[in-house]
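To assess whether the prediction recovers the assembly geometry, we first specified each molecular entity separately, as shown.
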Amino acid sequence: MKLYEQLADSLSSRIEQGFYQSGDKLPSIRNLSQQHGVSISTVQEAYRLIEERGLARPRPKSGYYVSTQRGLPPLPSTDQVLQKPLQVSQWSHVLHMFNRPDNDLITWLSVALPWLESTTLRPLQNTLSDLSRRVGLRGLAYDRLNGAEELRRQLARVAIDAGCQLTPDDIIITTGCQEALSITLRTIAGPGDIIAIESPGFFGALQAIEASGLKALEIPCHPEHGMSMEALELALEQWPVKAILTTPTFNNPAGHTLTDENKQRMLTLATQYDIPIIEDDIYGDLAYSYPRPRAIKSWDTEGRVIYCTSTSKTMAPGLRVGWVAPGRYLQQVMHMKYITSMSSTTLPQLAVAEFIAQGGYERHLRRVRAHYQHNRDRMQDWVSRYLPAGTRASNPQGGFVLWVELSQQIDANKLNERCQARGVNVAPGTLFTAGKKYRNFIRLNYAQPPTAEIEQAVQIVGEEVQMMMDQD
Ligand SMILES: Cc1ncc(COP(=O)(O)O)c(C=O)c1O
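The predicted structure of the complete assembly is given in tokenized form:
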């Protein structure tokens, strides 16, 4: 047996025996080479072999980590049936989720809050605290209706990563992505109109649909590859759909991503039916691999795609800095922005512009992408370990939410009540549909560092699910 094979065998058996657990960082190549008195290339060969065996995965500039892919829970099931357009309700459930008690004792697995403690966000905080002194009265005045010029210039640069060629004048700054979505919907559709949307879909988008008197036509999705193009085509044939609203990259809650081919196919279908696509790309920059997936907007030559996103997941939601590139609808969306909230708050815009310009955003992204990937591995591992056999979970390649399918017997709203009584909460699946689906699904946030407290929270969810199944 060759030296690298011996080394690979010894590391493999340490992984198999649980000495290194899913998501753990493995020793560095240099360390192993010194410890075992072998060359760097021997260790590299050993790691290549371990990777081939599916036991470890490299992460850019960070080294090798134990893979969880072997013990992954199976992917959630999908419902391929196309239903009819529905009026959205569920507001009381959404309100319940946002009315968080001031209770430090609760472990929040429900809310899609990013990791705010990352030290890479400190420059942003520092800028925020001294900006008002530096910019004087500008911080107290209205900014331009479409937002601060310096921010729009930086965002046009950031959009290049998603494959989009934009100028600062193509962009309107909004108060979060939620405002971008709601003013867009109100611009392009009116009461009774039908909007095609992924199923499951983000509840904020569903609420915006409801508030504008629209109807949601939920399109079935594949757990890894997103919206079914066949189902979308059928929907467009059957119903007078006014627009497609999609989160095609690291979807919330399901985590899937449309392939480049299907992103182009969706655009072709939209062109054929002459309707706009509202693309929500809020998680796109949080890809675990580089380059990040392209946005549908990157193929748009007609201004048909209305691109919406924000800094809420990539930086911090309290900034309330979002933006929309409305393409051919620019003037109408600008008017809707004016009548909704006029210009957005000035200081956070300037702070975000400076953070990006000084390279802080890129540094932060590098850090959180690796962090979220590591946490995903941990969370998948805990779900496999602590939730009853048969539980299914998504396998997102970006972002920080996991979509979990429980046994059919489980009512996730009841489960959430039971978990809250034990200091944990989860987001019940019924939030993510206008219909009656996903009763036995939950969404878990894995943005926070995977501490013993979070592990215990997942254990509690598992115990409660098991008890509910036993009582049934
Ligand atoms: C897919 C998606 N779109 C939009 C939003 C709203 O973002 P913002 O906080 O920037 O308004 C969220 C927030 O959870 C989201 O998950």
